[in-house]
Structures are given as structure tokens and as C-alpha cells.
Amino acid sequence: MSVKIQSIRGMHDVLPDQSGLWQYFENIIRNTVQSYGYREIRMPVLESTDLFCRSIGEVTDIVEKEMYTFADRNGDSLTLRPEGTASCVRAGIQHGLLHNQQQRLWYMGPMFRHERPQKGRYRQFHQIGVETFGIDGPDIDAELILMTARFWKSLGLTNVHLELNTLGSNEARALYRGVLVDYLSQHENHLDEESKRRLTTNPLRILDSKNPDLQEIIEAAPKLMDYLDDESRQHFEQLKVILHAAGIDFRVNTRLVRGLDYYCKTVFEWVTDELGAQGTVCAGGRYDGLVSQLGGKPTTAAGFAMGVERLLSLIENTTLQLNNGIDIFMLLQGDKAQIQGLILAEQIRTECSNIKIQVNCGGGSFKSQMKKADKSGAKLALILGEDEIIHDSVAIKHLRSESEQKLIRQDELSKVLSELL
Ligand code: ATP
Ligand code: MG
């Protein structure tokens, strides 16, 4: 007996009943990013493994344990992208989009991480990312945040709030790292295994720990905010001034460090309490060092990525009414109608570009076709039988209201339909 083939654990089909919601979401995002003058870039889902090791950082969760990495037939090590920023920077360097210019880019698509699947955490998930290059002030950080706030407004999401922090310059962070390691080493006996390991590899990430036993130690730890360089401090102050002026609420969270190595200065997350532990729906910040780290000329950069599945489950909690159905279902009776119906439907599609019409295919009794019409959700049924064909006409029936069936001349059909729909 053969075993049923199933999708890979943590990788999901988007079924036709759900794809309307995805399209609705993607349209709002696309219109919004375009309204700020951002242009789309599309990158491959496979990249050299090196790209992610050199950008995200060797001792991060992603690179240590979440990547889908394999040797291809040539023996080259390839990785299914776990995020988009590294690929976007790689493409920007490769095609000369970054040096001595400003870029505002966005992308969307699947990302891959080998994590433990649960609600809001999948092995193939989708991100929409926005990246800017060559603009070093807090004005662009603010623009990115204003854009995200506009997304939530357009999507009708109110229960998301902004957390903000600054990581300072690389030098300031290195200085602070030393101070933090000194402090945490004094409490080493109370750290959990993960944190002990991170003490030497990635100590800032300990601040991010969700372990309740560590909260007291973390709370009392020295604050990066107190070790900031002047430039980062001013950058952060100015960002807060702009956000205040624009009426964006936020909370400064000094423990927000982000899981990826490449961030500096501004970092931010939009968080909701509606999704349990998977509450971060959008995360980003500044990554001034990444372009040169990947071999490009030094170029400042800032961006963010949002988790599409998490945002969609928030939208599902709102009272959104989507209309993805068809407008018209066409019933056909008799051999002639089978041909002429298809042609008439073509004519309607040509003349009324907004109307969605589905033609009954595969025959069937009038009754069974009527059942399909009803189930389709269409507002109108068009009926084409032998009588109608003889008179160059077609019958219109309202499916969602009580009104009489009417005969219309075929050459007047498009006009009548445009008025009705
Ligand atoms: P988390 O702390 O939830 O693991 P992260 O810091 O690893 O998130 P990022 O790399 O910053 O996440 O990715 C940006 C966004 O992408 C996240 O805020 C989240 O909304 C989404 N995301 C990340 N990993 C997953 C996943 N495995 N499944 C679904 N969405 C995800
Ligand atoms: Mg993660």
C-alpha cells in the first residue's frame, strides 16, 4: 500500500477560500508602499549559504539551527532564504543599486526556517520587507515607521503597538557588551544553559530571554542606553521628536535587541497581545554596516519585515467582508447554447472589464445548473436556451432578490449588466 503524500510539516497550502484574504492584504500593502515611492525587487529563494552566515551572524538562532541548507548537484552549499534583507543587499551590490544613491525598495515572498511549527510559526512563511539605502538620518527611520502605522490603519488593525530601542554604534555596542558580560558573569550560577552559552557567543540576546527565572537579573542589568555614543543618542532623540510630532505612540523598550547581528542604532517592533507568544508582527531597524560587510561600498540602510501569516490571523479577527465571488453565473441548455454561451461570455468580458462571469461547463439539467448558480454566490444568472437563441436574447434572473426574470436582447446585454452590477 502506498503512503499518502502530504505537504512538508510546517509548510501550508493557501487554499482558494483563503487566497482572497491574501490578495486583499497584498493589495493594500502594495498600494501603500507605492504611495511612498518604493519600488518592488524580486530575489531568488535560493542563495549561497555564505550570504546568510556573513550577514545574519554565525551565532544567531537562524544560522545556528533554523536554516534549510543543502549541497546541490555541484556540491555548492545553498540555503533557502530565511529572510529577505541579506538577499536584497546582495542584489543591490551585485547590480550597482546602492553606491552613491538612494534606494527605496520592497519585496514579498516565502521564507524558510526550520523551527518548531505552532500557530504563527511555520517552516515556510511569508514576509513583506521594505529596505532603504543611502539615507542616514532619523527621518527615514520615521518614514518607515509612519508607513507601517499606515498599513495597520488601512487594514483596520488597532491592537498593535510600537516598541522602540537603539543599539548605538558598533563601537558603543562592543563597549556595552563587555560591561554586560562582566555583570552577567557575576550571576552565572543563576543563568540557564542557553544563556550561559550566549554569554560567550551573543550576550545581548540574553536580554531577550523569556525565561521567568532570569527576569530579575535582566531587569537589573546595565542599560545599553547609558553607553550610547553621542551620534546614536542624537539620532534616537530626533526620531522620537518626529514620531511625537506625527502622533505615533511608542514605548521605549531597552531590552529590545532583535535576533539578527546586523542591526545598529534604531530597532523597532510592532507587537500585539492577540497572538500569544508569536506577538511580533513587524520588526526592523537600521543596519548601516551590512552593505560593506557583504563586500559593497559603505552604505547606510534601514528597513523592516512583517510576518504575513501573523497579520492575516489578526485581520481574520476583524469583521472584514470580502467579496471574491463571481457576479454572474451563466446557465446553458442545448447544443447551440453550449457554443454561443462561451462566445457571449467572452463578449461580456471584453465590454465590461470589471464583471466576473462564470459559464456552466459540463452540461447538466436546468435544476442542477440553477443549484450551482445559487452556490456560486453570483448576484445574477443569465439563462441561454434554445428559445433565447432563436430570438437573439438571453434571460436575466436575480438570484439574491425577488424580482421577475426578464428577457434582454443580446446586443443590449453589456449595457444592462453594467447598470445592474
Ligand atoms: P520571532 O521572535 O517570533 O522568532 P524573529 O525575530 O525570528 O521572530 P524576524 O527575523 O525579525 O523574526 O522576522 C520578521 C517577522 O517575520 C517576525 O516579526 C514575524 O512576524 C515573522 N516571522 C518570523 N519567523 C516566522 C515563522 N517561523 N513563521 C511565521 N512568521 C515568522
Ligand atoms: Mg525567530
Task: Tell me what you see in this structure.
The chain is of the alpha+beta class and 421 residues long. Helix content is 38%, strand content 20%. The chain has an eight-stranded mixed beta sheet with strand order 1-5-6-11-10-9-7-8. It has a five-stranded mixed beta sheet with strand order 13-12-14-15-16, sandwiched between helices. Strand 15 and strand 16 form a beta hairpin. Helix 1 packs antiparallel against helix 5 (138-155). The longest helix is centred in the first third of the chain and has 20 residues, at 16-35. The protein is elongated. The relative contact order is 0.12. The mean pLDDT is 94. Magnesium ion (MG) binds next to loops.
Could you report the average pLDDT, rounded to the nearest whole number? 94
Number of strands: 16
Given the structure, what is the number of helices?
Answer: 15
- Strand fraction equals 15-25%
Give the spatial strand order of the biggest sheet: 1-5-6-11-10-9-7-8
N/C terminus separation: 53 Å
Described by the principal axes of the CA atoms, the overall outline is elongated
Task: Give a quick account of the main beta sheet: strands, pairing sense, barrel closure.
Answer: 8 strands, mixed
Ligands present? adenosine-5'-triphosphate, magnesium ion
The Cα radius of gyration reads 28 Å
Q: What structural class do the secondary elements suggest?
A: alpha+beta
Classify the helix fraction into a percent range.
25-40%
Ranges with pLDDT <50 over ≥5 residues? none
